[in-house]
Amino acid sequence: AQTVTQSQPEMSVQEAETVTLSCTYDTSESNYYLFWYKQPPSRQMILVIRQEAYKQQNATENRFSVNFQKAAKSFSLKISDSQLGDTAMYFCAFMNWRNTPLVFGKGTRLSVIA
Amino acid sequence: DGGITQSPKYLFRKEGQNVTLSCEQNLNHDAMYWYRQDPGQGLRLIYYSQIVNDFQKGDIAEGYSVSREKKESFPLTVTSAQKNPTAFYLCASQGVSYLYNEQFFGPGTRLTVL
Fold it and tell me: What is the DSSP string of A41-87?
């Protein structure tokens, strides 16, 4: 069974600074997808970024980028120019190529400080 | 507007009662999911359905039941057999495609046992 580990329960960052959230996973699959979801205080889950394992290029979405290290089974999220609206829980999630249900990490609570 | 709706937003249950949480989607998605969220636990899968009239147990199915009679609807019943039902419940849906497999989430239902 796949597992996802987020080793940082809580983090904080100054506004306009850069922060990196860590995620590691365990799988025997070679084809899969990785996701970062954001859950702000409203509790609505929002997809931040997605990475296909067969792609070597790291995904980017505006201020959000990932560092995908397939051999190390690592999938970190970098948030540049942090904004107060980035304050949220961030969940790393895994899905194998058969589109089976997402497996989530326990989350990292990020606080952006003015 | 396309999306996922969950009702009610807040639900209170007396011990020994069954309650049903509603989840409806108009995204024409084949797959639907129920997750439970507890503090510090991330999201855990209760049940999922990839096609009408078929569903599978997730990691924590005990004390819960579902039905999938229509593509648009996937209600979750929390039975009296669920010993600790107080939690936040999230419903999600997904199109079954290898090209685009984002899960879209509803706004959630907060269930409290009195």
Answer: TT---EEEEEEETT--SPPEETTEEEEEETTTTEEEEEE-S--GGG-
Out of B45, B88, B101, the one facing A43 most closely (by C-beta) is: B88
Is B101 near chain A, with CB under 8 Å? yes
Using an 8 Å CB-CB cutoff, list chain A residues near B47.
Answer: none
- DSSP 8-state assignment for residue B102: P
Q: Which of A33, A95, A106 sits opposite B41 (nearest CB)?
A: A106
Q: In Å, what is the CA distance from A67 to each residue of A3, A35, A51, A73, A96?
A: 19, 12, 10, 11, 19
- Rounded to whole angstroms, the Cα distance separating A83 from A101 reads 31
- Interchain CB distance below 8 Å, A102 and B103: yes
Predicted local distance difference test score (pLDDT) of residue A60: 95
**Shortest CA distance to A15 belongs to which of A108, A88, A81, A110?**
A81
pLDDT band at B16 (very low <50, low <70, confident <90, very high): confident
**Across chain A, what does the average pLDDT equal?**
94
Cβ atoms of A40 and A107 within 8 Å: the answer is no
State the residue for tokens 């989607």.
B25
Give the pLDDT mean for B89-111. 86
At B40, the pLDDT band (50, 70, 90 cuts) reads: confident
